C-alpha cells in the first residue's frame, strides 16, 4: 500500500472518524474531566489493534495507544477537552446554547484529537501492509485549556523515546506556523497585611491592597523594558473586601506572563517577582508567590515543517465540496458586513524558514517540542474570520466542512509520518535542528515539582 492508497483508505473510512468526533463534541468535557472522551478513544484504538495504557503522569484522562515495534517511533498528539460556558447548538448560525451555562468545543478539540488519530491509523495501515518496522504511538493529551496536560506528561517522561511528534489545530486557514507560540505561565501573588480601622487607627494597619496596587503599577513601568513580543496580563482575584474604612489585610492577583522563548520567560518571571517583593517591602506586608502552571514555547523544526507543508500542497482539499456551504456563509455573516470573496482560506500558507513571527497564543504542545522534533499544521475547519473560543467555532464543530477539514489534516499527518519512515535523513536533520534550537539543553519543565495535576485542578476551579 503506497501513500496514495493510505490517503484513499482514510477517505473511505472517514465516516467512522466523523462519528467519533461528533461524540466527543456531544460530551464536551472540560479539563481533567474528559472521562467519557478518553474512554471512547481507548475503545476505538483497541478495535484498531493498538495496545492502550490508561492514566499517565497523574492524569486519569491521559492515555497512550501503541502499535508496532522498532524504529522510527512516531507520536501523534490528540486533545479532546472542551471549554466551560461555551455551549452552543451545532449547525445554528445564531448564538443559542444547547445547555444553558454548559460546556462547548470552542477550540475544535473534538476535531483535533480525531484528526491526529487518523494520522496514527494511516501510518499503522501503511506499516502493516508494507511489513515495515516502526512504532505508532497515539497520545491522549487532556486539559490543554488551562491545565497544561502535556506539560505534566512531558515532566513524567511520557514523550521520551519519540523520533518525532505530529499534530495539528483547527483553524480558518491552511497553514504552517510562521513562528513559535509563546511560553506561558500563571502565577498567583497573595499579599497579607494587617487589618485596622482606617479612620480610628490607620497607623496600626498594613494594607495588602496598597501592596497589590503598587505591584501592578511597578509592572506597568516594567512593560517598557521587556521584549516587544512578551505579554503580561493580570486579574485581581481578591481585593481584600468591600469596606473602604477597614485596612485590607489580604489581596491577591493572578498573573499570566508570556514570551517567545522559555528562558526569556524565566527572566521575566524573576523580574515580576522582584516587583512583588518590592511592593511588599514598601507597604510592610508579606507576599506569597505561587507558581500554578506553565507551558513552553514551540521549537520549530524547518526540516519537518517543510515535509508537512509539501503534503498540505499535494493533497486535494475536500472542504470545497462540503454540503453545508450555506451554513458557512451564514456564520461568516455573523462576523462581518462584507462578504469575503471566498468562504474558506484554502491556499496553504507556507512554512517560514526563519520561523520568527511569534503566534500570540500558547499551548502545552510547546513542551513536547522541547523533548523531540515536532511539526503541526493548521487546517481550515472554520469559515474565514472565525475565532477559536467563539460560539461560532462551537456551532461549526459537527458540520460537513469541519469534518472535511479534519480529514484533510488527518491525511496530511499520515502522509508526513510515512515520509519520515521512508526517509531517515529527514529525522536526522530534524534532530540536528532540534539540538541547535534548544542549545542541546535537556527539557526543563516550567511547572515546579510540588504542583501536581490534582493541585492545579483544585486551584483552577
Ligand atoms: Zn484553545
Ligand atoms: Zn486549542
Strand content: 15-25%
Outline type: globular
The count of helical stretches stands at 15
Small ligands present? zinc ion
General description of the model:
This protein is α/β, with parallel strands linked by helices and 461 residues long. It has helices at residues 3-12, 14-27, 35-47, 109-130, 144-147, 149-155, 208-222, 262-283, 302-314, 325-333, 365-371, 391-395, 400-422, 424-438, 453-460, and strands spanning 51-56, 59-69, 73-79, 134-141, 164-171, 173-175, 183-192, 231-238, 250-259, 286-295, 345-349, 374-380. It has 2 domains: 3-180 and 297-438, Zn peptidases (Aminopeptidase); 183-295, Alpha-Beta Plaits, CATH 3.30.70.360. The strands form 3 sheets. A 6-stranded mixed sheet has the order 1-2-4-3-5-12, with helices on both faces. The protein has a 4-stranded antiparallel sheet with strand order 8-9-7-10. Strands 6-11 form a two-stranded parallel sheet. The radius of gyration is 24 Å and the shape is globular. The chain binds zinc ion (ZN) (2 copies). One zinc ion is lined by residues 107, 109, 144, 169. One zinc ion is lined by residues 107, 145, 388-389.
Amino acid at each position: 500500500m503506497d501513500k496514495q492508497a493510505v490517503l484513499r483508505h482514510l477517505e473511505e473510512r472517514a465516516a467512522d472518524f466523523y462519528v467519533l468526533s461528533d461524540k466527543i463534541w456531544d460530551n464536551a468535557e472540560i479539563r481533567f474531566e474528559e472521562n467519557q472522551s478518553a474512554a471512547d478513544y481507548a475503545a476505538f484504538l483497541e478495535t484498531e489493534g493498538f495496545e492502550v495504557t490508561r492514566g499517565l503522569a497523574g492524569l486519569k484522562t491521559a492515555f497512550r495507544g501503541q502499535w508496532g515495534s522498532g524504529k522510527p517511533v512516531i507520536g501523534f498528539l490528540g486533545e479532546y477537552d472542551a471549554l466551560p460556558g461555551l455551549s452552543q447548538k451545532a449547525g445554528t448560525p445564531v448564538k443559542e446554547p444547547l445547555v444553558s451555562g454548559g460546556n462547548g468545543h470552542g477550540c475544535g478539540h473534538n476535531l483535533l484529537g480525531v484528526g491526529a488519530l487518523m494520522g496514527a491509523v494511516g501510518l499503522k495501515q501503511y506499516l502493516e501492509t508494507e511489513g515495515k518496522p516502526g512504532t505508532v504511538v497515539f497520545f491522549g493529551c487532556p486539559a490543554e485549556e488551562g491545565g497544561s496536560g502535556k506539560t505534566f506528561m512531558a515532566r513524567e517522561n511520557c514523550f521520551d523515546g519519540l523520533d518525532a511528534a505530529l499534530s495539528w489545530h483547527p483553524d480558518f486557514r491552511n497553514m504552517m506556523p510562521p513562528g513559535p507560540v509563546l511560553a506561558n505561565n500563571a502565577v498567583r501573588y497573595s499579599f497579607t497585611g494587617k487589618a485596622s480601622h482606617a479612620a480610628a487607627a490607620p497607623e496600626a494597619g498594613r494594607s495588602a491592597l496598597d501592596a497589590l496596587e503598587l505591584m501592578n503599577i511597578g509592572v506597568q513601568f516594567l512593560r517598557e523594558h521587556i521584549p516587544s513580543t512578551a505579554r503580561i496580563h493580570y486579574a485581581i482575584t481578591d481585593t481584600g473586601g468591600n469596606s473602604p474604612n477597614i485596612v485590607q489585610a489580604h489581596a491577591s492577583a493572578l498573573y499570566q506572563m508570556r514570551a517567545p522563548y522559555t528562558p526569556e520567560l524565566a527572566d521575566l518571571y524573576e523580574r515580576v517577582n522582584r516587583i512583588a517583593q518590592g511592593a511588599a517591602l514598601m507597604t510592610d506586608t508579606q507576599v506569597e508567590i505561587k507558581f500554578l502552571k506553565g507551558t513552553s514555547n514551540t521549537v520549530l523544526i524547518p526540516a519537518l515543517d517543510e515535509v508537512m507543508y509539501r503534503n498540505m500542497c499535494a493533497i486535494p482539499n475536500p472542504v470545497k465540496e462540503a454540503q453545508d456551504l450555506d451554513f458557512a456563509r451564514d456564520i461568516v455573516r455573523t462576523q462581518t458586513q462584507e462578504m469575503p470573496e471566498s468562504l474558506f482560506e484554502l491556499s496553504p500558507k507556507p512554512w517560514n524558514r526563519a520561523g520568527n513571527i511569534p503566534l500570540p497564543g500558547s499551548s502545552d504542545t510547546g513542551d513536547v517540542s522541547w523533548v523531540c522534533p515536532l511539526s503541526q499544521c493548521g487546517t481550515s475547519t472554520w469559515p474565514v474570520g472565525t475565532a477559536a473560543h467563539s460560539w461560532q467555532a462551537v456551532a461549526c464543530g459537527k458540520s460537513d466542512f469541519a469534518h472535511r477539514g479534519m480529514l484533510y489534516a488527518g491525511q496530511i499527518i499520515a502522509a508526513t509520518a510515512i515520509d519520515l519512515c521512508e526517509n531517515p535523513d529527514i529525522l536526522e536533520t530534524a534532530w540536528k535542528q532540534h539540538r541547535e534550537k534548544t542549545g542541546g539543553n535537556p527539557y526543563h519543565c516550567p511547572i515546579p515539582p510540588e504542583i501536581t495535576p490534582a493541585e492545579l485542578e483544585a486551584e483552577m476551579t
